[in-house]
Structures are given as structure tokens and as C-alpha cells.
Amino acid sequence: MNIFKKESVANFLSADARLQKTLTAKDLIALGIGAVIGTGIFILPGHEAASHAGPAVAVAFLIAALVSGLVGMAYAEFSSAMPIAGSAYSFGSVIYGEFVGWILGWSLILEYFLAVSAEATGFAAYFNHNILASFVLNLPKALQASPMEGGLINFTAVVIVLIIAGILMMGTELSKKVENFAVIVKVAIIILFIIVGFFYVKTSNYVPFYPKEFHSVPFGMGGIFTAAATVFFAFIGFDALASNSAETINPGKNVIKGILGTVIIAVILYVAFSLVLTGIVNYKELNVDDPAAYALQVVHLTAWNKLITIGALFGIFTAMVTMFIGGSRLVYALGRDGLLPKKLGQVSQKHAVPTNAVLIATVVQAVFAGLVPLTQLASLINAGTLIAFTFISFGILKLRRRSDIQNTGFKMPWYPFLPILAGLCSIFFIIMLPDITKISVGIWLLIGIAVYFTYSVRHSNLQNQ
């Protein structure tokens, strides 16, 4: 047994030949925007402004975007050299060996599955408070909240997970059409909010721009960096595009276009949205689950309030679709390689999707969406993301030394400076996460190690060759 034995790119390419190549750069940008512009923009700016950064939350988004762009280039180079399913898990298995690949895959399961669950709870907050309530169709309290919030189950969150699962079961082509349409609607509504809200901005709400109560470390940047570490949740999704590289036409060129296009569009929208939001309402009032809708209520724009709610629902829906696809493809990859039961690596002949992987993702995501609050989900997601970011960034150094892996597509510029910088930034933001998050993720990783040594290593295709 050699737990650091490296997988072959050729084996992955052969196994993934069953997946259809239908995605273009335009489709990847739509998937990326679909994932990134969701709960992150409609909920997090308010929470982080109130808790960590004040109006300077816009700066936190900018910092998170810069680091995401750096790491995104690392993902794009890996996707160009290895257009395979599984994202960081598959890349790690080839570069670092099976055990590290498994740890990355286990971390990404946490990211993707909990991301869908978190988006589902965000969807439920907007839908229950602003759609059902307007028709006087309030669900019982027991069906609106998790047990940790005094309810029995978040019913709406569970239902939206099941609806999206049904769409994904019908194949990539249908989910792509639904995603592209929804992305256009939500981006249009966000831009409308920025334009309309601009006329209601009070410059007095920007003073102080970075309140002193958040200056928790030397140089007064504690709150901003803590907020930046938290709003990484707002940018997860661009890395999920790497999971789709096996289904992408000409991944050497299209994946980098998809990732950087996503990050650039997202940061412009996030910064503008945050500035308008904190300009309309004082940051101290924004610690609510639907801050954009609340801000419009404060300035008596009731009709616009309903419109932003529709945009939020479309936005969160598309984010769930992309992360659902990424998570199910990761489970498929782990099943394909024998690290999880092989049935999870099977692909439906009719719709060319990994049906069993989608089913297991549905069950886990629906359970978390129904039973766990959004704030607890978001912090755990960031940790799984940043662990993968660290290994992928430093992995470029090892990838460039592999003479057996040819890459005629995108390569990260300013090598080795940018890969090292991206890796160090990722480690810094892991350190900035709350202690409870680091402890929880440590427990998750210990469970993953136990699963590997009790099941995965004995059933691994690589170990049994």
C-alpha cells in the first residue's frame, strides 16, 4: 500500500469520456455567475457590514476577489493541463498522490454540499418573508426554521433542493438552458437595484467608513480581513467550473475565460451593491437575512422591494444549480476511482449524468438545508474552500516540473511568484477564520482520514492496480 501513489491523467481522461462536451466559455461564465452571484450578494454584505467591517465591507469583497482571481488562474492551468472531472481532488491525486487528493476531495465535499444547503436556507428566507407573507400564506414557525433556530425543519429549503435535483437529473443541456436564463434575469435586477438605490444614498451613512469597534489587530485591518475571509463564501463557485472541465469544449482556452470572466463581473457587482446598500441604510441596521429588501423598505420603495426579492430568488437558484453540479461531479469522481462505493461513479446512458452521485448529493444537502442555520454553514464552507485553494496554488510548482503532463493551453503568469502568493494568501485567510470554524473543520478532516483508511484505501482502483 502506497497512500502517496500518483494517479495517471490518461486513466481519468478515459473514464470521463462518457461525459458529453457541451460547455463553451459563455456557458462557463453563466455557470460561474450563477454560482457566485447568489446568497453571497443578497445576504452577506449586510451581515458582514454589521458584524465586521461597516461600509468597508466593499473593500473586503475586493480583497476576496483579488485572491480568488489569483487562485482561479491556478485552477485554470490545472484544467488546461488536465481536463478531467473532480476539480482539486483529481488534480491533487495526480500531483500530490492519492491521500492528499482524498483530503482535498473530502474538503470539497464540505464546500459544495454545504454551499447548496446554505443557498437553500437563503432562498427560503427571501421566499417565506417576502413572497408567501405578501399573500398572507405564512408557513407555521415549525416549518420555517431549523431545530437550532426553534423550529422543526426549514421546509422551503428542502423543497428547492429537491426541485433542482429533478432538473439536474434531466441532463446538462436542460440545466444549462435554465441557468443561462436565470442569470440574465438576476444580473439585470441587481444592476437595477444599484441604479435606483444610488439616488437614495446618504453620504452620512459612510461616516465612519471603517468603524473603530472593528479594529481588532495592528494597523486596524482586523475586521476587514475577517470579513474578507468570511465573504470567500461569496466567490466559491468559480472553482466549481474546474469540475466541469471534462464537459467543456476546448478547456485549455475556455476555462480561464470562464473563471476570470466570473471573478471580474462578480467583484464589480459586489462592490457596487455593497456601497449602495450601506449608503441607503446605516450598517448597524443590516444584520438581517434579506438586507437588500429591507433597505428598499426603509426608503418606502415597496414595489422595488418585491423586484429585488425576485432577483434574489433567481440568484440563489442559479448558485445552487452550479454548486449542485460541482458537488455531484466530485462524488462521481470519488466513486469512479473506488474511494467511495463504485455505484456513485456510474453514468446514466439516457441523460449522460452521474445519477447516483446526484441522488446522494440531494439527500445530504436536503438534510443540512432543513436542519442547520445559514451562518453556521457559511463559515464551514470557507474553510473547505481555502484548504483546496492552498494546495492548488502551490501545486502549480509541482505541475510545471511534470514532463509527462503536456499543457498547450493557459499557464499562470509570473511563475513562480503568483502561485506562491496565492497559496500564502489562502493560508492567511484560513488563520483569519473563527476558532470554532477551524475546530469543526479539523473534526471533519479526521472523519475523512478515518474513512480513507477503513474503506477507501482498500477499494481504491489505484491501490489495486
What does this structure look like?
The structure is a single chain. The chain has 465 residues and is mostly helical. It has helices spanning 9-15, 25-36, 39-42, 44-53, 57-81, 88-95, 98-132, 155-169, 172-198, 222-230, 240-243, 251-280, 291-298, 302-336, 355-371, 374-399, 417-432, 435-459. α6 (88-95) runs antiparallel to α7 (98-132) and α8 (155-169) packs antiparallel against α15 (355-371).
Features:
mainly alpha, single chain, 18 helices
Structural class call reads: mainly alpha
Largest sheet geometry = none
Average of pLDDT = 81
Strand percentage lies at under 5%
Termini gap: 11 Å
Radius of gyration: 21 Å
**What is the count of β-strands?**
0
Order of helices and strands: HHHHHHHHHHHHHHHHHH
Helical residues, percent: 55-70%
Poorly predicted segments: none
Shape: globular
* Count of alpha and pi helical runs: 18
Care to give the gist of this entry?
This is Amino acid:H+ symporter family (PotE). Helix content is 67%, strand content 0%. It is mostly helical.
What secondary-structure arrangement, pairings included, does this model have?
Elements (H helix, E strand, L loop, with lengths): L8 H7 L9 H12 L2 H4 L1 H10 L3 H25 L6 H8 L2 H35 L22 H15 L2 H27 L23 H9 L9 H4 L7 H30 L10 H8 L3 H35 L18 H17 L2 H26 L17 H16 L2 H25 L6
InterPro entries: AA/rel_permease1
Subcellular location: Membrane
Keywords: Membrane, Transmembrane, Transmembrane helix, Transport
